[in-house]
Every structure is written in structure tokens, then in C-alpha cells.
Amino acid sequence: MEMVKISIDGKEIQAPQGSNLLEVARQNGIDIPTLCYDPRLEPFGSCRLCLVEVDGARGPVQSCGATVNDGMVVRTSTENTNALRKTALELLLAEHDGDCLAPCQMTCPAHIDIQGFVALIANDQVKEANKLIKETLPLPGSVGRVCPRFCEKECRRQLVDEPIQICWLKRYAGDYDLANGEPYVPQAKPDTGKKVAIIGGGPAGLAAAYYLALEGHQVTIFEARAGLGGFTRYGIPEYRLPKAELDKEIKLITDLCKDVQLNKTLGQDFTIDSLKAQGFDAIFIGIGAWSNTRLKVEGEDMAGVTSGIEFLEKVTDDKNFPVPARVAVIGGGNTAMDACRTSVRLGAKEVTCVYRRSRNEMPANPHEVHQADEEGVKFELLTAPVGFEGENGKVSGIKCVKMQLGEPDASGRRRPEPIAGSDFVIPVDLVILAGGQGPDVSGLGDKVGVNRWKCIEVDPKTMQTNIPGVFSAGDCQTGAATVVEAIGGAKKAAVAMNQYLAGEAVTGLAEPFNVARGKSVKEVDPAYLGEREKLPKAEVPTLAPDVRKTNFNEYELGFAPDVAKKEALRCLSCSCLDVHTCKLRKYSTDFKADLNKLGKGEYEHPILTDHPFITRDPNKCILCANCVRICNEVMDVTALGLVNRGSETVVLPSLKKQLADTQCETCGQCVSTCPTGALLVKPALPKPGPFVTDAVASACPNCSIGCDITLNVKGSQVIEITSQLNSINDGNLCKKGAFAFADIHSADRLTSPKVAKDGALVDASWADALNAAGNILKGGNAAVVVSPKYTSEELTLAAKLASGNVYGAVPVANSALLNANGQTATYDDIVNSSLVVAVDVNLAADFPIVAQKVRKALNKGAKLALVGAGNDKFAAQASYKYASTAAAGELAGLVKDAGNAVVLVNADTLADAGFVKGLAGAKVAALSSAGNIKGQIAAGIKVEAGEYNKLLAEIGSGAVKALLVLGDTAAVDAGLFKGGVKTVIVTTSLKNVPATADVVLPGATFAESAGSLINTEGRVRKLAQGITPVSGKDNQQIIKKLAAALS
Amino acid sequence: MSNQYTVTVGLGSCGIAAGAQKVYDALQNGLQDVAADLAVGGCMGMCFAEPLVEVASADGARIIYGYVDPEKAVELVKKHVESGQAVTESVLWMKGIESADANYYNKQQRLLLKNCGVVDPNSIDSYISMGGYKAIEKALKTMTPEEVIKEVEISGLRGRGGGGFPTAIKWGLARKSPGTEKYVICNADEGDPGAFMDRSVLESDPHRVMEGMMLAAYAMGASEGYFYVRAEYPLAIKRLRIAIAEANAKGFLGKNILGTDFNFQLFIREGAGAFVCGEETALIMSIEGKRGMPRTRPPFPAVKGLWGKPSNINNVETYANVPYIVYEGGAAFAKYGTESSKGTKVFALAGKIARGGLIEVPMGITLNQVVFDIGGGLKGDGKLKAVQTGGPSGGCIPAELCDTPIDYDSLKKIGAIMGSGGLLIMDESACMVDVAKFFLTFTQDESCGKCTFCRVGTKKMLQILVRITEGKGREGDIELLQDLATKIVQGSLCGLGQSAPNPVLTTIKYFRHEYEAHIKDKICPAKKCKALISYEIDAEKCKSCSKCAKGCPVKAITGAKKEPYVIDKESCIRCGLCQSACKFDAVMVTTGNGRGE
């Protein structure tokens, strides 16, 4: 091919004349953005993202449709092309409706992947759930107990019934991890040699320490008090957050740190400068907000007036801290509630909460207020203290005035105004001021910038203070706030600090582009949810007020596993399932698309779930028509089309039929090419995630083509199977490849061995079951039948179990062609042949991937000859058609003339191997529905139907007395179980197991098996173990155990 | 056919719409004892004076009577034939006559339209008698294909569909493309609102277009041709069918045409009314039976067109020019026009023009000459405000720029385009934001939906225009429109999107103050945008006749005897019926009184 020289972005490139410009750029490491280009399809040009500038061209050039010519000068990323891309994206977004991320995650200050961890709990992967939470929040158990639940306020489930109990689920995941086996600690990266000082061991400091230690930095925590945890230890009472639980979570963090220095106070024991002098490369300040806000009224300094945090801190150290009979707590926040309820627990006779507004305005969590009420706390609402009276310097009463609510103030709450002449006195012995806290920055020195509220000032993107290398987050930066906000800030700071330490530009956490159906749940039209069953939320077991108010024991007891799972199943899964791979979101992030310019799309079309495997959401469709085109161009099916015109265009089956009622072959190719979440695979698991998955390259054992597949794995589960463009199947899959994995996690999956007892299969230990199996098979005259989906390694082991008496579970009519070494066709041979001969094979229906290869050959001008039945789809394209092999006499000549002819046969059914052998000079592709049939032949397993039938006869006659079936759900032939044969079955599900089975062992699926298979081309394809077998043993291990039991 | 007089009734769609069929029927009855033959004609071009009847005498003299009705037509023809004299006071046009109406004809240069209204479109003999099929005969018998292309090159003919691409180059590319299967396609998917050039030509002189296609086919080596005609042109399709059948019967189509080895067959494909199918790649898709959507070029149709074979697509008018060029020589054609835009151009003159219709003028004539010299100025006492050329893809040219010569390049320079030939004349009553909205409503509706910029971009632009005309325009909307427009022009896949923003860009360019008035002052200076206007009754002029109140569909007008009537602004729907009902000019339209805020 003639090579030409072109220049792309200043890079001199040689490429074949006439090749696709976008592909050439890609091959040279220049990625031109595109949404509608898929190398499997003809260029289409709808998205307009791939427009580039070419010297001499009249305007921007669509690179996916352009071909390279000598001397071409191309610029792929100019101000103009990028502006066009940004506008194109904004236009697409103006018609795009959905939620990139779930509103819970968007609202959470720590941006926890809530939908993800809830889904993992629903899918029985609680350990994975905890792991996921810890990506953004290192204290799930503790925060799960005390969080004010910003997320739940935005939970869309409330549009159906009530929000999900997200926080209790988070606590559940955290507690479960600590209670079940080794707690999760991520692997820290190698030591960077950088030293980081964390000032303050509260939630912010601990979170920063955690994320920085994981990055490989040497972290030292300096804490002024004797214990770590900050406000979670000293400000939140034991009955809400048991310190033992907190300590367990903290320990997992401090284990990652280099050093923890307790009782070291900033400004006294060290300063920012001294830390720098000690060689700390970066410093994080998270000193909290421990300064009590004063009321500034008369008598505030009297004895018997204390602050809420001081009080709570003292009680933390002394559970028997004495309180007098009458306690008044001033304030309406959580600290006030904690002080009230702690006072009750310490034995105060009368506890009064004094608050100047009404109950509706109280900042405390409503359920805390409710529980305080239950525990006997009195509320003096709309009451403002104006001074204190006392005797001998000790307080005896609060001078109060009644208030009424006026106009709303800046915070939106109605401003309280005093009622003239309403003065009264509350007699008290102890006053606890809990009207709020602020940071105490006195130890900072004067270099770190603070604002007028004495909060440390930072760049909100990076959390860096005015001093480079010094960062801050938490209450000292925000003013008194919540644990989750502190952790969210700290995570942000940690990201920026890591950049700083690596010497990179300090830009902070990248903020991906997000679309939302509404800024808040109030804006959301629930129409998109369709009909949903109402399910009441699960309540966490709570001790009765009388039981709990006398002690500091935790009174909210957390979810039991079944309750947690049920609650997790209530999640509506709002987030787009394509969020991690959506190209529209990626480019919208890259090009900083702005939704304010042209707005966002509206919900206009019902979300279509009629197909058993595929969900379609036209509201997310960008009309690239990839799905329509792949269905037509690659699969030769026209299940989908473009309906209506212009801005009314929508992708639907013709006549607006249901997708399942079309010619749809359920190959999932449409989903694979969809650049957004408009087409999705329905989840095989209870909840779909979305998850960031691990990609495990493997091979499909479901027929002899041996396609390259990718197992997308999360924890112990296969979420989806996809393929990659650079594969023998060019990224294409058929129904078997894309969807057969549902069996892996099906509800009827067999997980433990079973033996027959009194006519029923009952659970047994592996040892007992193997023993029983050994006894049966040792009995003499045993035969083995093994599935062709087994790996070659498994087959080799199986072949030894009953040498010479091992059969393939899917026998073939004639194995001669499967052994046709030397003239075996590769898939490239098919594509490059000038004459394709198909004998008795229905390509499109049975071997769609080979059908695509044939279509490619035909498009290049090859001729097609059809012999025998089948191949309706290709009939119109065939140059030669013969009703049978007998009628195809002239083919030998045609094959000879072609020189590079390829013959495709269905090895399962073809009896006349002689005919094919007679086509001298042709290469042969023997196709079989039995995946590793060539592996079976190589292992010496009998695969011919004649032999199999003989086995059936021998079973029937009683000549074969014992049978071992190594199968999968599909490959257990009921015809085998006759004549009282004793049977041992290794299988993945009881679905096809006969009632007469004596021993059943839980086998592994292909996703749980490492090994190889030999495909039609004779090529060895590698299978990888994507997940550990559900039974704990893979097939090789089981076969070895059986071999041992036999000997 | 031995009578001395031939009476022709203009029976194009335009004439029929104006009642010409009834005139024809009346003449058929009324002339039974008159020594005149009655004939069907196509469009004579003087649409403003339809129905038209021409009386031609044996010596070739033609006299056109206009504004006739069945009775008047019979009376005129009888009088004319009996007296042997034209009925002078009723003559619309005859040779040598000078009148405002006659100027409409006299100032034109009719080469292409020479036969239109004269030849019988249903008769190949009629066409042959006017010199038809002489060009193809000349080409087949005396010229090589290259020589045909050379003549076209000398003529300087450029694509009349609007693009202005040199026809000879296009033909040359198709000729050079390898392969024996090639196609010539006639784009008769005329879709611009207000344009009717192609329809009139097809209805009036179908053989001429066919002959042009035959010449193209001969030049590039094609043996099949397609007419892609929109289904909304049933008369054109009917006459084409007759013409193709007759040409087949006479051996002008089929095998070994005129005894040469040139074979050619013509087929008709009816378009289903999608404007975008006028775009050549979409047109090809449509002929192939696929969804009419443009595809990216290259490959150009000349390389890979219909069924993947080299194809040449020209519009009706381009082909119709070719017989003249080949027969008379390219130089004869190139005598007309300007340096870069040769020959004549057919326009459909419409809008607020005194005399609208189908005209043919030499390239280079100014818009003012067309409007005033040919069109007779504006309708009523209107004042020229702007001319829209090129339909929805074109631009709005303000009156002060109407001395611009009509040629491809001059029009492009001022932001407009030649287009296929629609000329929409606007007077001061036109709101330019509303005009932009009108054209964008059309293009956004006709976008095929394939590419982002056109599909969503035009929709967003239209939404902005709608809100501006509703008085809800926002600060920055003009800039947003311009930003979107320039990006849609650059980023769209095909000509539809690439040109759709032109009306908006040119109206902003030349009438920005009108946009600003709508956005900032919530005023529609032309008092057109309903949301921004109010109807009021001038108490001085009101005679309390109650006509307005009686006609008001929402009963928004109240009044009593001897009291001036009053319109309730809240319930008024601003339909304007009161204004037309009032005989005393008492109903006024005002703007800028708080509407739309």
C-alpha cells in the first residue's frame, strides 16, 4: 500500500494513502474525541466532536470520515475545534436527561459512592461495600452512627415512600468489616520519603492521615489530647458512639502512620515553623472548633456555668462525673442534645433545654430531639437567656425572656424577637452553654490566614492555606460542622497535598461533569420512576428510653444482615449505570461543558425495559445511531432504527414495536457501542452498581469460536461481559458471549456438596461427598462424561479418571474435520478468501461472529457458495447454491480456481466429511457448539456420536454401573441416567440434576476457571479465573480430589 | 390545427390555482364556432396577472391577456379573432407595448424560459417544433462527450441549485470516475418556501430538462437517469411521465438514440417531502430507499453516488440551460451575466411585490432593478425594507444594499447567497426577528436529525428567537445566537445546517437594533410580534359602529352607542380582526407598553 507523509499536531506521520484520519491519529497516540465513531462501523459523522482543522480545507473537517492524503497538515486541538466540541457537547446535553451520579452521592460532603456500597450490600458483598466506602471515608462505622445524613434528605426513594436508611447501612458495612475476619486495610503505596505532619487527630486529621499514608507518605499525627478522635471522642457521648468501636476504626488508620504524638499542643509544644524545621514537607491543620461561643450576658462567668464541649469532654474521661439536680442546657444543636441526654444519664433530676426559637428551627437532628424528649428532657422553647443570677458567685437561675418569631433572617430561619415584659427566671444548679463553637486559632501564630470568624482560610479547590504546603480542613476551617464535612474536606486536602508533595501543580480533586435530573429532590418530576412498589424502610432496633437513660450503653443497635440486605434492595439505583464509562460525561468534563448556557434535557420518553437483557433510555440518547448501525451493518439485523425526523428523532424498533418483538438476536452489540447510558445491560445481580470493575481478559467457552472476552469483575462477582476491539472477534460478541454469564450468580447456584440420603439430596461435607463419590466410581465399569466447556487442563485431568472410557457431553456427527490439521482456516483466512463455501451450517443463527467474518469477505468482493440447509440470511448474497453435497459437484473446480477458498462446516451435524475433504486446496473451519471440542479430542476424549450412543446403550444394559458427569447447567443429558446407574455429578446448579443422582459436587463456571481451550482455528485461548469459585474449589481441584478418592 | 389563431391558456399550477382551468373549459365551449385552436400552455411567468390567455396568430405574433375570468376570456378571444386585432385596452403584453405590466416581460432576458407558456408541455411535437432535441442531435452526431463538457465549460454555467459549483467540472469528475454504470440525477426537490422555479419549468417545458439530462449523460457516459421530484408537485410529475413516455415512443429515450450507440433511460422517484433530500447525498439515500440523511463527503457522488456508482446531480434549472448552451454554443450563453456568473438566472419573485412571478434575468442585474423595474416596486404604498435571497439558507439584504448585483460572489460578500432563486420582498411591516424566526422554524423542522449542530443547534436558536419575539429575550441572547450560529455553520454535516443560521446572522448584522428593541425595550418596532403589541381604539376616530366588537372572537371589545369602543387588553388575543373590520381606521396597534415583561 502506498504510504504518505502527513503531519498531525506537528507530528510527522507515515500512513497508508487513503486510510482513516481518525484511526491514523489514534495509532499515533493522538486521541481525537468522538462519540459516534466505532471502528466496527462505517463513519457516520453525527456527533461532530471529531472535527479537526486541515490546511487548505474550507472549514473544519470530520476526521472520522476523512482519508489521509500526502502532505496533509492536521491540527486536532485548536481553540476553534475545542470551542466547537464544547458547543456540540452542550447541545447534546441540552437534550440529555438523567443523573450521572445518584443525588445521595452528589449531596454527601464526602461524596461517598453510596449507590455503589448499597448495591454491594444488596449483592451480599458487604466487605466490598466497606472497601468502597473507605475510598472516600475512612470511618464508616463511626460516621454511620453520628452523621446528620445529608444524603438521605436527597434520596429519591422518598418520591415513592421513604428514603433509604443510608447511614445505618454505612454503619452496617463498617461494623461488619470489623466483626468478620481481617478488617480491610488498603495496601499503601511504596514509601515516597516525604514527611507529613497532621496537626489534630480528629476526623479531619485522621482522614488526611489515612489518604496521605496510603499514598506512601510518612505521616505523623500531633494531638493535643490524650486520645485520638477529636470531637468524635470528646464531643459525642458514648451512648451514640461507643469509643471501643471508634478506637477500632482509628487503629486501622494509625497503623498506616509513621508516628502518633499525643498530648502535643500546637503553639505550646510545637509550631508550624518548628514542624517545617523538623523536615515535614507538608502540614495539615485540623485542630477543630473547641472554643465555646459566649452568650455575652451578665453572670456568664459564675461557677456552675460551663460549656457543652467542656462538659462532654469531662464526661468522656469520667462516666461518673457528678451533676446537680437541676441542669439547664442552652442551645438547640446536637451538642445541646448530647449535653441534655448526658445529664439525664448522669442522674440529673431535671434537665431543661433552653432555646430561643421553636422546635422547627432547632439545628439538632430531629430524631435526637425526639429521643431527648423520650428520655425526659424538658424544652423551654422561644426562650432567650438574658443573664444569670446566683449567690456567692455560684449560679442559681437563668434570667429569661420569652420570644416570638418574626421575619426570616439571612439563614432563612425566622428571627426571634423578645416579647416585652415576659421576663422570668429558671432556677438551676448547673448551666451548660451549648450555643455553638468556633475554632481556637491562638496556637497558629500569625502567619496562617484566618477570616473574621477565626476560621482558617483556604483555597476551596485545594484546601491550601496562604502558606504553600500548609493545608487545612475540618471545623477549624469551616467553623463547627459535621464529621462527614470534615472528612470530605480532608480528602480534598489530601489529594492536593499529594500533588504538592509530588511536585505537581496543586489543582485539587478533579471535578467530573455531572448531569442531574434536578438540583434537589423537590425539583424532580417522579414520572421517570414509573410504577414502584411501596416498601417501608427498615428501622434500626433501639432500646427503650427507660432502659437507655440510666447508662451510657449504645442504644441504637444496628442492622442485622437480612435487614440490611432488604433495606439495600430498596435503593432505586438513581445513578447512571454507565457513569464510569460514559463518553459524553468524559468529554463534557474534558471540555468543561456548561449546562447554564443551553440548559439540560427534559424527561420526554418512557424508559424502555421490555427486553429481557437490555434497558433503553431514549432520554439519554445522543442519536449517534451506533446501535442502529451495528445492528444493521455488523449483525445484519434491523431491530433498531431511527424513527421520526429532526429534533423529534428517536431510536426505536420500526413501527415502535417492543425490542423483544423484533428480529433482535440479543447479542448486546448495541449496548457495546453506545457511548452513553442510553443502552444498558440489565444487571444479573440484585443491584446493578454501577461499579468500577476489574477487567479480566479471558475467552468464551460457549462455542468453538473462542472469542476474546473481558470479565468485568467487582469483588467476587462478574458484573458484565464485554469484549475489546483488538481481539479475534473485533470486539463483537453474540448472545452466548455477552449474556450467558448470568448463570454464574444465579439464585440456584450450587455452593456445597450434596449426597443422596433417603431418596433426597442433602448437604454434605466435601470429605463425605468425595468419599461417597469415590466409593461409587470405584465400584467398577465407571464411565466419565465431560462438558466441552471445560478447559483443556480440566479435560486432561478428567481423561485420566477412567482411561479410555471418557466421553464428551456434546457428541459430534463426525470428528474427522475437527482433526483437519494443516488445512485449518483461521478467521483471517475467511476474511481474505475470495470464495467462501458454507456446508450445512447456519452461520448467522449459530455462529454470528463467523458470519461477520463472512460478511467482511463478501464486502471485499468474495463469492459465497451455500451447500445444504440453513443460511437463510446469506441466501440473497450467495453466488452458488446447492441443495446438498451431492448436487455440489462443480464446487471442487471453483475451489481450485479460487486458490484461497475457505469451507465452513458445522462439525456438530456434518456427516459427509468426505465431501469437504474432496474440496482440495480449501482451508476448513469446523464450527461446533461444543466450545473446547478440539481440547477434548486432544485429551483423548471420545467425542463421536456413535461412541456416545454406545455408552448410552451400555448404561441402559447395566454394563456401565457408575457414571461421573462433569458438566455445567446446560450439559447434563437426562438420557444418561438409566438402568440404575450410580451417578456422581459435578455441576454448577441443581437445575438439570436428576432425582436419582447419588453425589452432586458444586462445580465451577468458566469465570471461575483458569486454563485454556483450543478454538476452531486450532489456536489456544486463555481462560482466566475472574472470581474465586463460589464453592471454594475450582474444577481442577475437584477432579484431583476425585482422582484421589478413586485411588 | 389549421386555424389562423392559437389560443393558449397558462395551465401551470399557478394558473390553475388562479382559475385558469375554468377559463380553459369556458374557452373550449365558447370557441367552438371561432376559428381558433385551443392549447394548453405552461407558466407564462406573470403570476400577478393570472389567469393568462395568449392569442398567437399564424405569423407568430403573440398577445397576452391577463387578469381574465372565463367570461372575459371568451369575449376577448372572440373579439380578437373576429376583428383580427388585439383588444388593446385588455392587452397585458405584446411586442412593442410599453406599460408597467409589460415592463415585467420586457426587462427580462428569457433564454431558459423561452418556451415556458408557449410550448405545450404535454406534446413532444410541440417541443420539437420549437427546436427541441436539436441539441442532443447535434451532440450525438457531431460532438464527443469531451466537446460537450468543453462547451459547458465555455458557457461558465454554475450550479443553479444554489451552490454555484461549476457544472463542467462536476461533469468532468463524473466522466473521469472509472466504471461503466453511472447515473445522472435531476434534483427537483425544490423545497424553499416561496420558490417555484423548478416546478414551473418542469410543468411548462419538461422535455427541455430531459434533453439537458441526456446531454449530461452523454457527456459523462451514463445510461440511466433519475428525476427526484417532490411528491407535492403532482402536475410536474404527471407531465414528466407523459414526456418520458412520448420520448420513449419517439426514440429520444431508450436504446440507440437517434441511431447512435447512445442509450439512455429516465426514471422518476417521488420524494416524500423532506427538505433535506434536496441535499445531494441525502437525495441519493432517498432514491436508494433509505432514510434521507446526508452523509459525509468525500467521497463525492461523482466518485461514489447512487448505488455506489459515479453519479452527477444537478438541479432542474442547470439541466434546462444545457440544450441552449450545446446548440447555440457556450459563448452565446456566456454573453450574458458577469465575469464570474455567466448566463441568466430564473427567480421566483414573491412577497410584498407589486408584480410577482417567474422571471429570468441576466446575472449581474441589481436587486433594485428586479424589484422596481421588473416587479414594479412594492405592493400598495409599501417601502422596501429587505430582500431575502436563497430562501431559508439565504440572507436578508437590507434595502440600502439592494444595488448589489445578483451574482454568486457579490451576494456571498454581503452574507446572502444566490440560492436556487427565491426572492422574497419585504416591506416595512416585516419584523426582522420574526422573519428570522420564520425561516428557522422551517429549517429546524426540516433538519434530518442526524448531526448535533443542526438537530439541536437550530432547535436551540429557534427557542431563543421565540423567547425574544415573546418579549422574554435575555441580555446576551444576540451574542448567544451569533455564537451558536457561527458554530452551526462550521460544524454541521451538510448544507442545510451550514446555511440554516444565515437568516439569523444577516438579520442581526443589518437589523440588530430590532433585536435589541425586542430584548431590552420589549418593543416590536414593526408591530408584528403578538406578545409585544396591543390593539387600541382611537376614541377620536371611532364612530361607535360596533363592527369591531361584533367580529371579535373573544368578545374583548365593548362599547355603546355614541361612546367610543374600548378593547380589553387582557382578553385581547391580538388577532387583528378588529383592525380589518374597522372602516374608519380607528384601530391602532401599539408596542412597548409593558407587554412581554
Fraction of residues of chain B in helices?
Answer: 25-40%
Structural class of chain A: alpha/beta
Number of strands of chain B: 18
What is the number of helices of chain A? 34
**Main sheet characteristics of chain A:** 8 strands, mixed
Large-scale geometry of chain B: globular
Number of β-strand runs of chain A:
43
Order of the strands making up the biggest sheet of chain A: 30-29-41-40-39-31-32-38
Identify low-pLDDT runs of chain A.
none
Low-confidence stretches of chain B: none
Intertermini distance of chain A: 63 Å
Q: Classify the beta-strand content of chain A into a percent band.
A: 15-25%
Oligomerization state:
heterodimer
Structural class of chain B: alpha/beta
Greatest chain-chain interface? A-B, 35 and 29 residues
Question: In whole angstroms, how far apart are the ends of chain B?
Answer: 71 Å
Beta fraction of chain B: 15-25%
As a whole number of angstroms, the C-alpha radius of gyration of chain A is 35 Å
Task: Describe this structure as you would to a colleague.
The complex is a heterodimer of chains A (1047) and B (597). In chain A, the strands form 11 sheets. An 8-stranded mixed beta sheet of chain A has the order 30-29-41-40-39-31-32-38, sandwiched between helices. In chain A, α4 (114-122) crosses α19 (561-569), α5 crosses α8 (166-179) and α9 (203-214) runs parallel beside α17 (483-501). Chain A is globular, with a radius of gyration of 35 Å. Chain A has 1047 residues and is an alpha/beta fold. Chain A has 34 helices and 43 strands. By secondary structure, chain B is an alpha/beta fold. In chain B, 40% of the residues lie in helices and 16% in strands. In chain B, the strands form 5 sheets. In chain B, strands 2-1-3-4-5 form a 5-stranded mixed beta sheet. Chain B is globular. The A-B interface holds A 43-48, 51, 59-60, 62, 65-67, 80, 83-84, 87-88, 91-92, 94-95, 597-598, 622-623, 625, 641-642, 644-649 and B 274, 291, 295-296, 298, 444-453, 455-460, 480, 483-484, 487, 490-493.
